[in-house]
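thread: overnight batch results

M.L. [08:02]
morning all. the overnight job finished for the chain we discussed friday. pasting input first so we're all looking at the same thing
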Amino acid sequence: MKHIDIEITAESGLELLTNDEIARLSEDSKDGDHQLFKKCILAVLNSTHITDEISYHNEQLKHFDVEVLQLNKGVKLKIKNAPSTALVDGIMIQGLKEQVFSVLRDIVFLKQELESNARIDFNSSNGCTNAIFHILRNAKALRPGYDPNMVVCWGGHAIPEFEYQYSKEVGYRLGLRGFDIITGCGIGAMKGPMKGALIGHSKQRINNGRYIGITEPGIIAAESPNPIVNELIIMPDIEKRLEAFVRLGHCFVVFPGGVGTAEEILYILGILLHPDNKDTPFPLIFTGPKASAPYFERIDRFIGDTLGAEAQSKYQIIIDDPVGVAKAVQKGVADVREYRKKVHDAYHFNWQLKILWGFQEEFIPTHENMRQLNLSKDQPTHLLAANLRKAFSGIVSGNVKEKGIREVAKHGPYEIQGDSHIMEQMDALLEAFVIQKRMKLNAKDYVPCYKVVNTTKDRKPEVVK
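M.L. [08:03]
and the structure it wrote out:
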């Protein structure tokens, strides 16, 4: 692949900064976050290259650099060795250019904003939600005065072509009905719904469709934003990313995926199982083509065996029926609108939903933290869901995130231990993901970054076979 040096000028907000703000922006881009800044921009520019191998990006990173230049009329970025696939006739693709400046906004400029705002507090539950609101507002993602129409689509990046096509068809049916799409911004079941909705919007002459991609620094290189994303938002960590989804979205559609999708499912179920959220309408739909029915049977069985029937009552499963999914979304969003209207909650941000600190605090998947997770039934069900979510989050880290990969390479696989029954169910689910090649894109060479340990109070741990 050829690499090219290029300079690009900021648009959409950053051109309105004062000279002092630009000077600080330039200086801050050179501090300890500079490497992170470079990695995220390189990930955006690599969006046409499909891979989840960190080594690919790290090799390019050795020769890649970005410099923030101060101009009286705004901000300019000087990019060294940009991938040529990000340019057409020597000019950067407009969508990628917008995403690059979203990185500048969320990684560098937002840091200034958060540090200078005494009201921002990531160390308390209410403070965390307020900070997420601030980040989304700063990204202009919050738009008061519009009826609910945001559909969050979750699913895996490492999926077969027929599942991708199905997610695209569902997105198309949603687009025809005027719904906008939020995903994790990567490929696979994140790109499919956006691409389908784009076609649906075009047919309905909707020219202001929103395709919001929400990511976080640890995962952006492994799941580069797909080119359809027209609003890229980079949250500080996975927990803030997940809360941003549930605060912004009005309905959730889950396609087949791997451990990352299981993490998202457990996160939302843990929140919905909290007593304070019992009566809150929250449409949650699992869907896939006919050939993927066994996947959802396995997920449903795992949820029933670990979290129980109440958790299973929080979602519906629709197989091989994109139109049925779109109509269920319509009904669900209508219910959300009526409820928000009744309780005087905002349409653009779900303040009403109760989210505990255990779902908000950043979980760092060290070997010790993974071993210490309470994966037993001697706790409220919503807290068990929160801890199971952390276990899956650790596996995601070991699979595709740079820190997690280094941790596993240094200390060996993560050990996950807990009640015998829960561990057996978890081991079966993870083994199914491996067999179905849902762990990574390069599935044939996949080496598990974890081992499931079966424990009881009366005997030493033993590895589940």
